[in-house]
Amino acid sequence: MHISRLSKFLVLVAFTSSLYAQTPNPYRNVGWAKLPDGRTWGAVADLDVAPDGEHIWADVRCDATAPERFGNECVDSNLDSILKFNSNGEVVESFGGGMFIWPHGIDVDSEGNVYVTDGVSDNSIPDGDQRERIFVGDRSNNRLQLFDQDGNYINSWTQFGRPSGIFFDEHDRIYVADSESDVEQNPGWKMGIRIGDANLGWVHEFVLYAPGDPFVIMGTGAEFVTVDATGNMYSGEPVPRNLQKYRRVRP
After folding, report:
1. Which of residues 119, 142, 170 is at a domain's end?
2. E strand or H helix at 193, and its extent?
3. pLDDT tens for residues 136-192?
4. 196, 211 in Cβ contact below 8 A?
């Protein structure tokens, strides 16, 4: 019996839709972050939690007037692009005015020092788990790649969609942001944040990016993710220019 490509595609879509329907979402969107003095949002890039487990540091690219501008939003701006938010979503500290061209990655160490990368390759956003493995979000190939501390290849995981940002919490969970799954780049998958077991890679939860349009090929969802000490999740969404908070409503 001959099965057309369209029929195979429809079967795949039906299967993945059923799969997502069975994957619980323990989070709800929360209106949260605010910028001071009437400042409008530039693209939101990476973010991380401060050592107190409460405050959130975020890259907010400076230019907010030209939606088509990409790759150099801060080159001619004196706006601070590195912002610290309290639990109410208010900016309590900032720096970086005139220091960056395109702030992309951010990390905060145990002493509160903030590290920022300027224009990191968008297909190589590394992070590490408690086993000292290095994870690389290789979204152009729809996979996470795992390496040891010497750079030796361990494995590839393809169950996290088209991955970009990665975060590990103290409960050995991995959070992976997927902003680019669509009908062309990763058909049959949906944009959102997948949460799973950092040891074995099983995906247990999925937070759908509800506004995502699979027919828009520009990465409209969450590209970066972090989680605070109480389990609230935060995502950086560059194209929508949004810093989104998700409150965990189920254990």
Report:
1. 119
2. strand 192-197
3. 888 888 999 999 888 889 999 999 999 999 999 999 999 999 998 888 889 999 999
4. no
